[in-house]
Design brief:
478 residues; binds zinc ion
Length: 478
């Protein structure tokens, strides 16, 4: 019996998402990434005495958009609070956040294979600055460019039961953020950060076990590994008869382990009280409804629509709609060709392989969707074999703007279906393989494939394989 049979993993995720605004949440400083340290600061985001915050309306709009896309109820009145704690890169000594009256509550993200993960709450807050420990020997430096950057925190219910479900939830959440254009959702630049609350309980138990919080994970696969490692650690603790203590852990990807955060950094004894410098955030029902009608088609709806429209599988539709730009590409090509399955096969095979090898996005892909459709049209009409189509595809990658038909003709790849030309290749192969031909005629049908393959090779991929197959059978028997 494995640990997973005896114990149940329970995970809730807290995701911090940087909203795509030009300026910070409470001042007019720029949010651009990678500027010289402390360049984008002012008395408000430095927390200087007397400076007053002014709420950025665009941040409210994007936070509302996020909440609605997650199916949450956006509350007509929400409140800002001060979350008091000392942290070197938190110049005010408190963070402005939302506490007991958040912007939105109660949405969900469905998981594949049924089930859904509830969204407990979505609230707005400001980001802290950044401590830099490796720049000056023996000293830490602080960059406050990020202080005051608008965030939404998306807190899930403890509904996740496996590390792979956690990863799937994050992929779906990221797709929603990308479709709605509320955030770059870029983990490398810190615009999407994940903390995981992990606990373990005996299988079948109704109450939750003691949870530990894991921070510092900087990719979705790190989240998945960290959760699995923490599950094993808690199970080992419980099976030794010890108790799991509530603590904050850091994920160390290099050592594949979680370890307690230094207690000095951990002394977060949060005290919340209402933020006296900001009025309640009041949103009119009509304004909320207008934000709802602004929402684009969301990933799940698009996945279902493409499945229905083109008869592709749920899995394929999931891959093809993982990003909005990829879905646009697929839909344009599939619509033109009128054959969604053929396009799905090529996009998920050749196109994604090229993107992976080139570490590029679909926006950088050199073959426009219309040209891919034209290429597959040539396969459909029998003008090109699949092998020849792959060669044309390779040429199109190197010669953006070229047309498939022109390349096919120039490279001599147009499929030969005319018996006059095929027969000479077929007869040459029959003459060269007398033993296989004898056995084929005697009933060893599996020898047909290699013989057809030899003819295809002799023709440089130009022979029509169906016609070749018929001709080999016919002429071998003579
Ligand atoms: Zn500022």
């Amino acid at each position: 019996m494995s640990a997973h049979d005896r114990w149940e993993l329970v995970v809730g995720l807290e995701v911090h998402v940087q909203l795509k605004t030009q300026t910070k949440i409470f001042c007019g400083c720029s949010t651009s990434f990678g500027d010289a340290p402390n360049r984008n600061t002012c008395p408000v985001c430095l927390g200087l005495p007397g400076a007053l915050p002014v709420l950025n309306e665009r941040a409210v709009e994007l936070a509302t958009r996020t909440s609605l896309a997650l199916g949450c109820t956006v509350h007509p009145v929400s409140l800002f609070a001060r979350k008091n704690y000392f942290y070197p890169d938190l110049p005010k000594g408190y963070q402005i956040s939302q506490f007991d009256r958040p912007l939105a509550t109660g949405g969900a993200i469905p998981l594949p294979g049924g089930g859904a993960v509830g969204i407990t709450r979505v609230h707005m807050e400001e980001d802290a600055g950044k401590s830099i420990h490796d720049r000056f020997p023996g000293a830490s430096a602080i960059d406050l460019n990020r202080a005051g950057t608008p965030l939404v925190e998306i807190v899930s219910d403890p509904d996740l039961r496996s590390a792979s479900d956690a990863r799937e939830y994050l992929l779906r959440l990221k797709a929603i953020l990308e479709y709605t254009e509320v955030s770059d959702a870029n983990m490398e630049e810190g615009s999407l950060r994940v903390d995981a609350n992990v606990s373990v309980r005996p299988r079948g138990a109704a109450t939750l076990g003691m949870k530990a919080e894991i921070k510092n994970m900087n990719s979705f696969s790190a989240v998945e590994r960290a959760i699995e490692v923490e599950f094993e650690r808690q199970v080992a603790t419980l099976e030794r008869g010890e108790r799991v203590v509530s603590e904050t852990l850091l994920w160390d990807a290099a050592r594949n382990e979680v370890r307690p955060q230094r207690s000095k950094e951990e002394s977060h004894d949060y005290r919340y009280f209402p933020e006296p410098d900001l009025p309640p955030l009041v949103l009119e029902a009509a304004w909320i409804e207008a934000r709802r009608s602004d929402l684009p088609e969301l990933p799940l709806a698009r996945r279902e629509r493409l499945q229905r429209a083109f008869g592709i599988s749920e899995y394929d539709a999931g891959v093809l709609t993982a990003s909005r730009a990829l879905a646009d590409y697929y839909e344009a090509a599939a619509g033109q060709l009128g054959d969604g399955k053929a396009v799905a096969t090529w996009v998920m095979g050749e196109v994604l392989a090229w993107l992976n090898t080139s570490r590029a996005f679909i926006a950088d892909f050199p073959i426009p969707p219309g040209e891919l459709a034209s290429l597959l049209e040539l396969v459909k009409t029998g003008t090109l074999s699949r092998t020849a189509a792959r060669k044309v595809f390779d040429v199109l990658l190197r010669e953006p703007g070229a047309s498939s038909r022109m390349v096919a003709e120039r490279e001599g790849l147009v499929q030969v279906s005319d018996d006059g030309a095929l027969v000479s290749w077929v007869d040459a192969v029959i003459a060269a393989h007398p033993d296989e031909v004898r056995r084929l005629v005697a009933g060893e049908k599996k020898l047909l494939g290699p013989l057809v393959g030899a003819v295809m090779k002799a023709s440089g991929g130009r022979a029509d394989p169906r016609r070749v197959s018929a001709l080999v059978s016919e002429r071998a028997a003579r």
